[in-house]
Specification:
696 residues; Ferric Hydroxamate Uptake Protein, Chain A, domain 1; Maltoporin, Chain A; 22-stranded antiparallel β-barrel; six-stranded mixed beta sheet; globular; cell outer membrane; iron
Length: 696
């Protein structure tokens, strides 16, 4: 258990813009001390593409460590983000998918080793954590990294890499609602010298839910190969595949009757039929070539392809049920394909000038995103009755599956291409002062066809980045930064035309403290965000597709505080708090972020004995609002704050065999996770899992 003590000595994670290709030697792997925290320091990540430590970056960055995810039995990216400072990861009405928010706005940009995934944001939250070493979260605009600079932040998922050595683990897990999960991770060297290395991960999961008849299954496959062609040239390939299936997919409970009376029904009720299903696959393939020109300069080339396929038979309430229990179901069949391709070439290096060493990154990239979405409407109306279907404890919904109009699909296509050239420079002005300057020039072309309504646009933008870090002394650092916001989301107006890009500014100032041993840190950040043409949900069209309107003058400001570290050699604790205020001068025209709590807090801790680690977490989400109706005018419903706690225990029998026990929602808190449109999604009640792991 001592391998878990103190701050990590060696960490191999990718840069947000150019993931690292460092390979662990066998002895380095065995000697690695691991940190079981949502860490922030002593890691090479970057908001600008530069290989800067977090302490030298004038922006808020958090890292959710592999060991933290293992200890707390976190299997999906959406669950992991519930523990990141300043991030609100809500439980969506689709149970497994989540919408994620930071600083008052949705985080709709997910990267894998710095490359944009084809998945929509809520699809990316379903990705299995077994594939990834860390989850990096940069809050605030990141327009230096990709062609967009959304104000909330960016999530970068760092894939596991092959190392020089042979080893791995297998686990078996059983939990509440018949959760069964098996996971294996195996690494090997393919040559005697270790110049060629391979790693493979497999995870299989099947589970029911507290919701009647709902079932979800998952298959995850991942493999990576790295080869040292010469001492200076390394080539790596990464491939992943994930398949998720869901049956009797619940859209939540009906919120109320049409006359406004509440509906008394147990949280386990599922009024939706077994034929309401969703099957999705997400796969990615990346090749990376890294050439070390000399000790100061290197070239990195990447090719990345990601695709997401979704086949869905959607069922949801058409409106609030009548007082006698009669209701109608809106249903359709969707077949959607999303594909993202990116080619990137970057040069990284350092040079000496005026007695100081400075760092430079120059990167050019070509990116293309395509969406092809077919929607089929039913040929007949689907109806049911709550009273007739829920007299028994295990109701079987009556609505039969209708026939769908496959001859006349509602077609939606989109194609967004971009070329960009980025330059980022870190000037070490003095030993204790560094200044960051950056510019990212982007040329964007976008095409969409929504039921015959064609939008064809071209945009140009240059995102600028200014920042500075001043080290007052060895323990205290202050920083400030300015970043442009430029975002081209796939949001359409009522006529089906693509909205113009969102533009704005992101400003942040912060304070960092670390003790002399670098085992305890304090981070405080204040931010101010302004946006023009911000996309706000304005209603649903006749095909039940959400449409948006662009609003200006949207502003977000607030602060975030993080304290984390070892208070004794055995006791670690981490605490974060954030307070965000979002204002919109046109609030009556649509919702902005009223569904996001202004105040959030999280706490995690553990204590190590000789062979036992015991810990837990407490997460707080403040008051917020749900919304009812389909717009453009919504009614808002207050949603109470809630506190969720978890417990974790890990025991090592010997070097090879260990066991783990976890409880989520420890005190069985009843709460509304979300209220949206005409449904309410109850939060998961108390649940547990037990796991046995064999390491070799």
């Amino acid at each position: 258990m001592k391998q878990y003590s103190m701050i990590a000595k060696a960490v191999c994670i990718g840069l947000l813009a150019s993931s690292s290709s460092v390979v662990l030697a066998d002895d380095a792997k065995l000697d690695m001390e691991r940190i079981e925290v949502v860490g922030k320091h002593h890691r090479d990540v970057g908001a600008t593409g530069l290989p800067l430590a977090i302490g030298d970056t004038p922006q808020s960055i958090s890292v959710i460590d592999r060991e933290f995810m293992d200890f707390h039995d976190i299997n999906s990216i959406g669950d992991a983000l519930t523990h990141s400072a300043g991030v609100y990861s809500e439980t969506s009405l689709d149970s497994r998918e989540r919408f994620v928010f930071a600083r008052g706005f949705e985080m709709n940009r997910f990267l894998i080793d710095g490359m944009g995934t084809a998945a929509r944001a809520n699809q990316a939250t379903m990705l299995d954590t077994s594939v990834f070493e860390t989850v990096e979260v940069i809050r605030g605009s990141t327009g230096m990294l990709q062609e967009i600079g959304q104000p909330s932040g960016t999530v970068n998922l760092v894939q596991k890499r092959a190392y020089n050595g042979t080893g791995g683990y297998v686990t078996a897990e059983y939990g509440s609602w018949n959760k069964m999960r098996a996971e294996a991770d195996f690494n090997t060297t393919l040559t005697d010298s270790g110049s060629v290395r391979a790693r493979a991960v497999v995870a299989l999961e099947d589970m029911d839910s507290f919701v009647d008849r709902y079932n979800a299954d998952r298959k995850t496959l991942y493999t990576t190969l790295s080869a040292d062609i010469t001492d200076a040239l390394q080539v790596s390939v990464f491939a992943s595949y994930q398949d998720d299936g869901q049956t009797a997919k619940s859209d939540g409970l009906p919120l109320q009757f049409a006359n406004g009376d509440p509906i008394e029904i147990g949280i386990e009720a599922n009024i939706y039929p077994d034929w309401g299903t969703q099957d999705s696959t997400q796969d990615s393939l990346m090749g990376e070539l890294r050439y070390q020109i000399n000790s100061d300069w290197s070239v990195v080339a990447k090719l990345y392809q990601s695709s997401t396929d979704e086949n869905k038979v959607y069922t949801g309430l058409d409106w609030h049920p009548a007082p006698n229990g009669d209701y109608a179901v809106f249903t359709d069949v969707k077949d959607a394909d999303y594909e993202s391709d990116r080619a990137e070439l970057g040069v990284n290096g350092q040079f000496d000038l005026f007695g100081q060493t400075h760092t430079l990154n120059v990167t050019v990239a070509d990116t293309n995103f395509e969406e092809l979405n077919y929607q089929y409407r039913p040929l007949s109306r689907v109806t049911g009755n709550l009273a007739a279907e829920h007299r028994n404890e295990s109701p079987e919904p009556k609505p039969a599956k209708p026939d769908y109009n496959y001859d006349n699909p509602i077609l939606r296509t989109a194609d967004i291409g971009s070329q960009s050239a980025r330059a980022a420079l870190n000037l070490q002005v003095l030993d204790n002062v560094n200044v960051l300057l950056g510019a990212n020039r982007k040329e964007v072309t976008s095409y969409s066809n929504i039921v015959g309504t064609i939008t064809d646009k071209e945009f140009s933008d240059t995102s600028l980045y200014y920042g500075g870090v001043y080290k007052v002394n060895e323990q205290v650092t202050v920083y400030a930064s300015y970043t442009d916001i430029f975002d081209q989301p796939l949001h359409y107006d009522k006529a089906g035309k693509l909205l113009d890009p969102v533009r704005g500014e992101n400003q942040e100032v912060g304070f960092r403290f670390s003790n002399s041993e670098n085992t305890l840190s304090v981070d405080v950040a204040y931010f101010n965000i302004t946006q023009e043409n911000f996309a706000v949900v304005a209603g649903k069209d006749e095909n039940q597709n959400v449409y948006y309107s662009g609003q200006s003058g949207v502003e977000s400001e607030g602060y975030e505080v993080e304290v984390s570290g070892y208070f004794t050699e055995q006791w670690f604790a981490s605490l974060s708090f954030s307070d965000t205020d979002v204002t919109n001068p046109n609030e009556n025209e649509g919702r902005v972020s009223r569904v996001v709590p202004e105040k959030m807090a999280s706490f995690s801790t553990f204590y190590e004995f000789d062979s036992l680690r015991v810990g837990g977490y407490v997460n707080y989400a403040g008051e917020r609002e749900g919304f009812t109706g389909f717009g453009p005018i919504y009614d808002y419903v207050p949603v109470d704050s809630h506190v969720l706690a978890g417990f974790s225990a890990y025991y090592e029998f010997n070097e090879s065999l260990s066991a783990k026990f976890n409880i989520h929602n420890l005190f069985d808190k009843e709460y509304d996770a979300k209220i949206a449109f005409i449904s309410v999604r109850p939060g998961d009640p108390r649940n547990f899992s037990a796991q046995v792991t064999y390491t070799f």
